[in-house]
Design brief:
It is a single chain. The chain is mainly alpha-helical. The chain starts with 8 loop residues before the first helix and ends with a strand.
Length: 505
């Protein structure tokens, strides 16, 4: 009988490990095949050919359903933080002092806190600021006011040029601008790259000696927002667009509050003359980008989209959420990507910044209201314009600094130190105005001027003489008669546009 020969122990171990390695790589292969099959389900398969400036968001949604469905959630108005959120809020009712600060300007009639992009067209139609025009050439506002409201805007600018679009009254392009802010405003339909569709931003970069086409992708993730979330004005004196209210960013000398004020002072621009003080007032719009760029998050290289459009997962697919909302509504996917503190602590940190800035900004508001009322009292005594010039300059400067901080969305969090600094500049200017006014009034035997009763929005509007019943009636008639006409014209036009579906998709 042949003697049984035992295997060397190392041979058994080699077979064992060899089998394990083989099983491991077979597992990797199976996993890879499964993943590739899954990825094939998610690969970009366009269903519709999109034109260069296709304004209908629902057609983009055919090609990008996840992004589109998340974008539709900007219609959600349920989020509320300590200060605002995205719920419809009457800011004049919340703070009636605003009525007096904007006396002589449309914002004293109506100022609602902004809602999501979904409501861009609805809200600009509804606001009292756009009036109740019953004819295309009527109304207080220019077509320029449509610029940031719709993907119909780049479509029209492509047809008639920027100046051609800005020309005329707001009502004249009502039937043309009907699709709310959407995909074509920020994306190239072929490459899906972010792009700039509003020439004012490109022109602003050029005025600073910069070429916007050379910026990085990360910069574009903020600059796409900066097409609209910035300070701007309507320049009526451009040589290449005479008598047209041309949308312009005052960035030539920089984007700080002081640099823009110096620009405005040099050009002599004013948004309106104050009804009470007669000061030439600047109405800050929403310098969100400018303030964000002075804060710690911008310094660390973050972009707007990092916090307002975080990555999310759905069915195993990762994509960018287009539900643009406060990061406080989704702290887990925004703040806690970098920060390890609890949601409660992070939220409280934001509120603390906001509370402290609001506290000092409210004090500046009171000083400004007093300055306007005291200036009116001075005018009523018969003071000369020469005597009032330095007073009005200080009031103008003070209100600019106040509004620069008040009009910003999220500025108290984006850059609380800069916000506090700018409020401080405004406080100094307002106090100087009031000192000069006190001397003028004392010289005419007038002492302290009573502070008006601004306990409600209605009382504040009555104080500055606004005919609110008339304004509301005009708007109601406009909404009843004109808006259905606009919608009918728009529907008929878009019905004639062919939809080019891709075969096999």
């Amino acid at each position: 009988m042949e003697q049984h020969r035992k295997r060397a122990p190392w041979v058994n171990w080699a077979l064992f490990f060899g089998t394990m390695i083989l099983v491991f790589f077979l597992g990797l292969l199976a996993s890879s095949i499964t993943e590739r099959r899954a990825e094939n389900e998610y690969v970009y398969k366009p269903k519709v050919k999109l034109s260069e400036y296709e304004p209908r968001n629902e057609l983009w949604g055919e090609n990008f359903p996840r992004e589109y469905q998340s974008y539709l959630q900007t219609s959600d108005t349920t989020f509320r933080s300590k200060y605002l959120g995205n719920a419809p809020t009457d800011m004049l009712a919340e703070d009636p002092r605003l009525v007096v600060l904007w006396a002589g300007y449309g914002f004293s009639k109506d100022y609602m806190a902004p809602r999501g992009h979904f409501y861009a067209i609805t809200d600009i139609r509804n606001t009292l600021r756009t009036g109740g025009p019953m004819k295309p050439d009527e109304g207080p506002m220019p077509n320029t006011c449509w610029t940031c409201k719709s993907p119909d805007v780049p479509r029209l600018m492509e047809e008639m040029g920027p100046a051609g679009f800005y020309k005329g009254t707001w009502a004249s392009k009502g039937p043309e601008v009907v699709n709310y802010i959407g995909c074509a405003d920020c994306h190239d339909p072929k490459t899906l790259d972010l792009r700039i569709t509003r020439p004012a931003l490109t022109e602003a970069f050029a005025s600073m000696g910069r070429d916007i086409s050379q910026v990085t992708h990360q910069e574009m993730r903020s600059l796409a927002c900066a097409q609209c979330h910035v300070e701007y004005y309507f320049d009526k004196h451009r040589l290449d667009a005479p008598d047209i209210q041309y949308l312009t960013f005052p960035w030539r000398d920089g984007t700080s509050a002081e640099a823009m004020l110096a620009y405005y002072n040099e050009t002599g621009f004013a948004d309106f003359t104050h009804e009470l003080s007669k000061a030439p007032i600047l109405k800050a719009q929403h310098p969100d980008y400018e303030i964000f760029m002075t804060g710690i998050h911008a310094e660390r290289g973050l972009a707007c989209a990092d916090c307002h459009m975080p990555y999310v997962k759905e069915g195993g697919q990762k994509f960018t959420s287009h539900k643009m909302v406060s990061p406080l509504a989704n702290i887990q996917n925004t703040c806690q990507v970098c920060h390890r503190e609890s949601e409660e602590q992070l939220r409280e940190n934001v509120y603390q910044h906001q509370e402290k800035v609001k506290e000092i900004r409210d004090k500046l508001e009171i000083q400004l209201v007093s300055a306007h009322v005291e200036a009116k009292a001075a005018w009523d005594t018969g003071v000369q314009e020469k005597e009032m010039e330095p007073v009005l300059k200080h009031i103008r400067n003070a209100q600019w600094y106040w509004d620069f901080t008040a009009a910003s969305h999220g500025g108290s969090f984006h850059s609380p130190v800069e916000m506090a600094r700018v409020v401080g500049l405004g406080m100094d200017e307002a106090q100087q105005a009031r000192v000069l006014l006190a001397r003028l009034l004392a010289g005419r035997g007038i002492g302290e001027i009573a502070y008006p009763d601004l306990t409600t929005k209605a009382r504040a509007q009555e104080f500055i003489g606004l005919p609110m019943d008339k304004l509301k009636a005009e708007k109601s008639e406009f909404l009843r008669v004109i808006i259905p006409e606009w919608n009918k014209v728009a529907f008929s036009r878009e019905e004639e546009w062919a939809i080019d579906y891709i075969e096999g998709q």
